[in-house]
Every structure is written in structure tokens, then in C-alpha cells.
Design brief:
single chain; 496 residues; mainly alpha; four-stranded mixed sheet; 4 strands; 70% helix
Length: 496
Amino acid sequence: MVQVLIILAFFAARLQEVFPSTTGESGTGVARLGHEQPDAVHPWWGSVLPFLSLLVMWTAFHVFTLRAGASIDRTGRLAPLNRAHALMTTLRISVLIVLFASVLWPSIAWADRVRAVVGDVVLFDELVIASPVLLMLILTWWSVEPLERRVHDALFLRHADAGLTLHPPQSRASWVWTQVRHQMLLVLIPICSVLAWGETTELLPRWFHSGEDAWWVEGLHWAGILVVLLLTPLFLRLVWSTVPLGDGELRDQILRTCRAYRIRVVGPLVWRTHGTLINAAILGMFFPFRYLLLSDALLERLPREQLEVVLAHEVAHVRKRHMLWTGAAVFATILATGYGTEVAIQLVPIPELIAHLASIGGAITSVFLGFLVFGFVSRRFEWDADAFAVAHMSRSAPDASAPARITPTAVDAAVATLQSVADLNAIPVAKFSYRHGSIAQRQKRVAQLLGAPVDHLPIARQVLFLKAAAATLLVLAMIPIATSFLWDVLQGGGAP
């Protein structure tokens, strides 16, 4: 959810470029409504509305966390922490809604106000426009940290009694910085790099005294984006603090599994999280910029069999290119909805005010549908990765059959792994995650695989349909862009 909110916040900052008709010819929607002097109709409170909303909501949340901490101390129950997480998500989404409303509403024109003050500086104006959402993420982490510390202290005693590896507690600032590194920078690094490069390429024709519509600008723009996507995993590896896993049987087992599915990775690397995360990840789409990360707590607390399940799950995401297809599905949905709205507005003769409102509605609808598609596709890809892990365990299980079918041993291992991840991360199994669904739902779907052929699992048909639908929609949505690009190339090539 954090990553989605950040993406949408920067999308709001560049909404004028994505859907020009939502903001009018002068850069603000006011011009479309017939006002020649947009500054004259902007009320003063529009300049502070996003931050005022942020302050009010965060203050209420901070008071709630103080009361929740007292309740946990008094009762020993974690229900207040779960309520705090739910409220935190609600308020973060609310700040994002306020941000979009402030950008789209003609009388506020938040993006124009910011750029009027700071200028159209490369990346800086976008950071300022998106800052209410970014600040809300950081401030809510700061408020919820005392509740998380209570859980850590309780687990610390439990781990000490069990003889497990103990990590020293983090300070409040250190814990918040850990969340920023592991959750915010995951998307901030690529987004900021892409935006900065895109704005830089727009300035290049001016620097080289070339036409602004020079065909090579677009090509250089996309080449830079590809370079950013390739190098982002390297930056994340450094930001997340990783070290190579030492030689031994565990390292050999991990590399054997990767080689079995022809997945080349750098690592495995130990992801140092101060024992706060039970997680694994494979960053990057192409070797040698693809890194296998296993968190310190994961290596310390999961049995070898369960570690194999987690590894197979991550391998599935790479082998089946889940991240690429998720991006394609969301990108295609937003583009298709946005262009469909623009075309309809151009074809249907309606008053200018109605056309402007329709453009705003289309922009909001495209973002909302993209958000829904992201969650829908992500959850099914998680189920697909779980099924892949169960199939992997079934092929090597002592009770494997011929032809290979999902075995009870493999199902039990996968269900137990999901339970361990939930328990060690203090996540209720029934708690719904927008990207992953609930642990209980995933366990149920894994159990339903028992006896199914490993090469013909039910989820595979759903995934194949999703990929085909995403590819078709993406091709249709890219036709206007490709046509425009080719036209620019031909025009540029034919210029004297």
C-alpha cells in the first residue's frame, strides 16, 4: 500500500502532462471555466489545504496511538495495534484524496501554486507537490512506533527464552528510517530517477539549440528509463544494507534451487533488518543487476524446509515475470481509460465546462481502475507463486508420485511456512493485505491444491488469461503513442 500511495502521489504531481485537458490551456483548470486571471480567484486557504489536512489527520492519529498504547499496557492485547494500522491506512488514503482534489479543483490548483513559488525545477516541484503524502507516511510511522516497540519487546523475551538470536532494540528515529529505507525508497528511487531524467531530456534541445520536437529526444528519454530500471536494484541493495551469505550448505542449497529454474542472481545476500523483517526478495529483472535478498530474521528463525518454500516463491515471481506483467496491466488500464475518455470528449459535442469535468472524472477513474487492477493482479500472482512453491516441494518430496502431483508433505510445508511468516511478523492470519490477500486465504488455496497435477494447476489458467488480457490492452493503448512517435521521427527526418 505504501508503494501504491507514493506512485499515485507523483502521478498527481504530473497529472497535467498525463491528461492535459484536465487542467486547461494555461496550466490550470480555471482557464477552462472562463477566468482570465486564475490567481484572482484562488482563495488563500488553497495554499495550505493539503498541509492543513495532513496536520489535522496526523494529530488525531497521534492521539489515538497514545490511547492505544495505554490500552495495550493495561490489557496486554494487540487489538489496539491492529486498529491503529487500519486507521493509519485510512488516513494515508485520505491525504492522497485531498492531494488529488487540490490538484484537480480549479480554485485550488495546488500544482500550479507550488510551481509558481519554487519554479519548474527538475524533480523538486514534484517532490513538493507530493510531499503531503510522503510526510503522512513518515509521521504515522513515528506515531505508531511505540506500539510496534511493545510487540518487539514481547518477542524479544520470547526469543530469549527460546535461545534464538537477539537483536538490540532500535531507537524511534532508527526504526522510522528503517521503514523509509525498506518501503518508501523502494519506489522513490526509481520514480525520482525517471522523473529527473525525463525533465532533463526536455531541456536538452534547448541546450543543444535543437527543436523541442527533435525525434532523438524521445528515444533518449526511453533509453534513460531503461538504464534507471536496470540500475535501481543496485541502488536498493546498497540502501538496504546487504552482505553476501557465507559459504556453506545453505548457500549451496539456495544456488541449486536457482540453477534448477535457470534463474541467475547475484548473491544470496543477507538483508540486515535488525531482526525486524521475515522476508525475502529478488530485485531486478536482468542479471547481473538481479539480487537475491534473504532477511537476517528469515535465516535465523525459519527451518530449512520452510526457507526452501520461501525461496521457491520468490523464484516463481522472477521466472513468471510477475512484476513485469503487473506493471503492464496497471499501465495499460490507466492509458486505455485515459485515452478513451479523451477521445470521447473530442467526439461528443458537449459544452466546455462539461468537457472539463468529464476530463477530471476520466483522470480519477483511470487512476482508480489502475489501483483496483494492481491489487487484483498482485493477489493472483501471489497465489501463483504459492502454487509454484508447492509444486517445487512436491517434485522433491519423499511421497512424490509419477506423474507428479501435489503431495501432502508439500502442502503441509507451505501452510506451515505461511503460518510462521504470520506469527514471526505478528500478523493476524485473517488480516487482509491489498497486494497479498490474507494469510488464511492463501493457506486455504494451498490446501486445495492437494492431488492436483504439478504441471496443470488451476491458478495457471487464470494467470495466462490475465497476461493475455494485459498484453492486448497494452497494445491497444500504445497505438496512439507509437503513432505519434513515428510521426515525430518522420517529421524530424524530413526536416532540412
